[in-house]
What we know:
The protein is of the alpha+beta class. Helix content is 34%, strand content 21%.
Amino acid sequence: xxxxxxxxxxxxxxxxxxxLVTQPDNRRYLCGYSxxxxxxxxxxxxxxxxxxxxxxxxxxxxxxxxxQSDTDGMHIVLYKRGLLSVLPALLKKFKITTLAYEPYxxxxxxxxxxxxxxxxxQFVLVDFSDYILKRREQKSHDEIVALQRSxxxxxxxxxxxxxxxxxGMSEIEVAIxxxxxxxxxxxxxxxxxxxVASGPNGALPHAVPSSRRICENEPIVxxxxxxxxxxxxxxxxxxxxxxxxxxxxxxxxxxxxAQLCAMxxxxxxxxxxxxxxxxxxxxxxxxxxxxxxxxxxxxxxLAVHETPSLNMRNQRVLKPGMVVTIEPGIYIPEWxxxxxxxxxxxTQDGYHLFxxxxxxxxx
Length: 363
């Protein structure tokens, strides 16, 4: 049974007549419709899923051909003046009395309009937050294959650009080269803004590439990912152009040890909290505990940040098909940082590592 059919069955069990899917990745997951929203204020379409009828994709003229191509025969309704210009008629046509929506991806102003409409028409509006996101956590075989392809291409791009790195290049130059290479090799887009952080800028986990020029013998944090076939990759490497001093070598080895220790914990039934703790303890015992201030990792799929989160508070357990990053880091103000990030999927008895790259891991 397809995911869409299972969702319709779930709606019937919950006595929900229809679901309004507005989150772009959820739309793509359920029906293949691939455009992203320009912003949360400007939707490229809404998927209306009925418990007892075929779904409808609601969009506007700009996306008609894309909708027809992506959804393979799904009924498409066009609007000219926004969703509420066509939604009331559809709900009445299909005798909908209970409508679910996604509150975590819906503007409050849009919700108020929908709420007032439903109240006036005596429809019940239902919060529908978790089902699709939880389904997306455990990837199918085809999704695992798509993620592997994305990671493989991401590593190819990294290697192409790594060979061109030179002292004196700016962080911005490197970031542009990475994203140009992604496009050249067929990626849809970067899965997030590429991070290139050299020297002291590496102390900022989410540094924005600047005009700072790379110096010899300093760590350079490169965090990059791309989207291929809808699925994201996410990888971080820390490299040095020149000699590696003793401090950098010690920190690098400590971060790598934390990463390997956490990866060994990846298996079904292990809590997200315990995986995070295994890496955090290594860094703490090495004397740099306060310098590792973010979660160990996160889920990856159609979005580059999904559940589950590998953090010190999450007691949920890992399940087969989940895909996570393992990315410990140490960040020292005025000196710089080291972060290493791989992606892995949880298997029936352990994990599968997507990454093949070993650049600089033998420091």
